[in-house]
Amino acid sequence: VDAPIKLNGLSLGGPGSGKGTQCANIVQHFSYTHLSAGDLLRAEIRSGSEVGSMIQSMISEGRIVPSEITVKLLCKAMEESGNDKFIIDGFPRNEENRIIFENVAKIKPAFVLFFDCPEEELERRIMNRNQGREDDNLETIKKRFKVFVESTLPIVSYYESKGKLRKINAAKPSQEVFEEVKYVFASET
Ligand code: UP5
Ligand code: MG
Fold this sequence. Notes:
Layout: E1 7-13, H1 19-29, E2 33-36, H2 37-46, H3 50-59, H4 67-81, E3 85-89, H5 95-103, E4 111-116, H6 119-129, H7 138-161, E5 165-169, H8 174-188
Parallel strand pairs: 1-3, 1-4, 2-3, 4-5
Helix pairs in contact: 1-8, 2-3, 4-5, 6-7
Bound molecules: P1-(adenosine-5'-P5-(uridine-5')pentaphosphate (UP5) and magnesium ion (MG).
Magnesium ion is lined by residues 19-20, 36, 38, 90.
Binding site for a ribonucleoside 5'-phosphate: 42, 63-65, 90-93, 133, 144
Cofactor: Mg(2+)
Binding site for CMP: 97
């Protein structure tokens, strides 16, 4: 088995839990590159590529895009970054994602941040965001949350069973959440 070459942390949590916000804070304080799987997929839609329209229809339904597409985008972004330390945001989202990530991209995370936040607060944050994301409407938010509970929470439990989970109370103000994040990073890096 290949030893992991790169130092990776994952950022997982429900839709609107603050993954992106906290990753932006992380890159200002630590020498990590932030890769958001969702941002990479949205960039692929904007590029007008062949797979873009398929990705778009899946995101607007809150469904998980096939692993090979997301893994390819992540690997390409890792290569292009020139860095060897990554915080990967919003991936893996299901068991298939995780297995392909570990077996094809040969990436095993060193630690997993889990941003824990109640559904009502997630809904409130997303409905206030107003950045024109196609999936930021009440109907799709419900679907995203359901997919999170059914497909992503089992992955969170998996990492917990491996002793890699760093659970963070994400229901607090952003700056307070970041204090917890910094505490985790101080012991991991
Ligand atoms: N905010 C943040 N922190 C706050 C705090 N502590 N207190 C109050 N407000 C706070 O934050 C959301 C909003 O809340 C912002 O307005 C922020 O200012 C505020 P953000 O940091 O954006 O949260 P985040 O967890 O990043 O929310 P996001 O909506 O990005 O999460 P999702 O997981 O839903 O979105 P993502 O982009 O990862 O995925 C979108 C879709 O892409 C998925 O549904 C899926 O269809 C597809 N996808 C895949 O198929 N595969 C993948 O691997 C990844 C995505
Ligand atoms: Mg995000």
